[in-house]
Amino acid sequence: MMPKVGRGDRMRGLMTYLAGPGRANEHTEPHLVAGDAAMLAWYDDNELSMASAAAVADYLEEPHRVLGTQVAGGHVWHCSLSLAASEGQLSNEKWRQIAEDFTAAMGFDDHDGTKAPVRWVAVRHGLSKNGNDHVHLAVNLVREDGTKASTHNDYVRAQHVAAELEVKHGLVITEGRAQGRGSRGYHQAEVEAQARSRAKAKHQREHGGSARAPRWEHLDAADRARLVQAQKPVEQPRLTLARTVRECAVASRDEAEFVRRLRRANLIVKGRLAEGRADVVTGYIVAQRPVHGERPIWYAGGSLGRDLTLPRLRQEWPDTPQNANAAVAEWTAGRRGRRPVAPGREAREGDPKVWRQHAEQLAALNERLRAVPLEDTDTWARVARQTSGAFAAWSRRLERTPGPLAEASRALSLSAQTRQGERPGSHLDLAPLGENAMILLAVTRSGGKAAQVAMFKQLANLTKSVHSAAEASGQAQQAARLASLYRTQLTGVHERLVAEYRGSRPAPSNAPEAAPAPVLAPELAAIVARADAAQPRGPQVPRSPLPVPIEPRRVQPTTPAREGPER
């Protein structure tokens, strides 16, 4: 179960959206499944109309409106609790239990009568566009006595509470959170923003000089929607950008080369300088280079992937004063739009003859990995990141649209994105993987089908090794994902490469059959058994279903002190 927390100051706007049709008409039969006693007594589980949604909002808003308590960041706390599509749908009663437990664990109840409660509701409507069952919690952070509910560290606390409720209510365990791993999420608004920017820029380029064509602002809403839809990318922009950044990082021997490779991949980059310094770069942002008229959409390295922050990437590069100065020079050139300061091997054409050599180096690396304990999560995270970068490089060379190689890069990157940085002590030399990515990016002509088959086989073997590590560390979902990837995607690519190498000739009838692809892991194991019910929280005092009247505070006038005998 994934929580997503937001803040604002418009309760009516939130309730109107929850009771409305949604951005893609996905909201159906909106109704309340949980809330305080007065609210449920009024509305029960009847379908919410726009008028009733406004009435609910006014009720929730009353403590803030009457008492005037101001909350920094907004007094409206909104959180959606979403299940994976594979979990199906829960009953209203089950969602009620989850919402009440979540609200209490976040500290929004009355804490056994020691605090005034907040006013809140949980709204359920149709499945999301991706088929996820979910509920929305709308909470007024101003309590009924005018005090404020604490939101300290609420994003992190929501994750911890969700993990506890997964066990308590028998939901699928989100293992990325349990294992200290996880990829960055994204919002559909990112796709909409990029598509809208491209559609507007294209319309202006094509019709900007025509007096007859209407301006973008004057187009009918349906026409604008049609133009935006035509510009929506095949893949979410953040995923495409993360794959490019990862391949450039893996193929680079130092930070300066990394900056130059980003720019050669048609990206624009900016280094984030330390405060008060012009020679220390602490982070970076990157964006696809826009066409004329578009605005770039910037992403920080950490927002693309936990393994793509600059401190994490620097762990793979030599740390010397010369390399640091060269990197600052390249970051500065990138920020100012100047040519690279010192072009290196990324600008040279590779030799196709080295394909076989690097395939042999990968085979030797696979042998060395046999000695690495499967419990060494830091080393296996590095292996996953480097292998992901190699697949990303191959994808950019061969796939016009994201295909099996891009999916392999994406799946492996999930094993690389640990929440904590790798601890020092893992000194396994992974240079062959970086050289592999460099060759895949630099060689424009084929290095020979046989060499390609050999190199791909070794990358597939590395995927198997990462799978074994995921299985050993209890990452059942990730292990199943990598197993499915190997059986369905990588095996198919390998067969096509072999067929091309053999000239697509059918094998003779007496040829031995190819050994079936090994099954790496069973399908996802049974869901973790339901945990014992939580400890009772003490005697509960039933609350009246009638709403508590909220009265304005009465401020007693103060009179100035008087001088003399009267005082």
Q: What is the topology?
A:
Elements: E1 2-8, H1 11-19, E2 31-35, H2 37-43, H3 50-67, E3 76-82, H4 92-105, E4 119-124, E5 134-140, H5 154-168, H6 175-178, H7 188-207, H8 221-230, H9 237-251, H10 255-264, E6 267-273, E7 281-288, E8 299-300, H11 301-304, H12 310-314, H13 321-336, H14 354-369, H15 377-398, H16 404-416, H17 431-442, H18 449-472, H19 476-501
Antiparallel strand pairs: 1-3, 2-4, 3-5, 4-5, 6-7, 7-8
Short description:
The protein has 567 residues and is of the alpha+beta class.
Structure description:
- The protein has 19 helices and 8 strands.
- With 567 residues, the chain is of the alpha+beta class.
- It folds into 3 domains: 2-172, 2-Layer Sandwich (BirA Bifunctional Protein, domain 2), CATH 3.30.930; 237-347, no CATH class; 354-501, no CATH class.
- The protein has a 5-stranded antiparallel β-sheet with strand order 1-3-5-4-2, sandwiched between helices. Strands 6-7-8 form a 3-stranded antiparallel β-sheet.
- Helix 4 (92-105) packs across helix 5, helix 9 (237-251) packs across helix 10 (255-264) and helix 15 runs antiparallel to helix 18 (449-472).
- The longest helix has 26 residues, at 476-501.
- The radius of gyration is 29 Å and the shape is globular.
- The model is unreliable at 504-542 and 561-567 (pLDDT under 50).
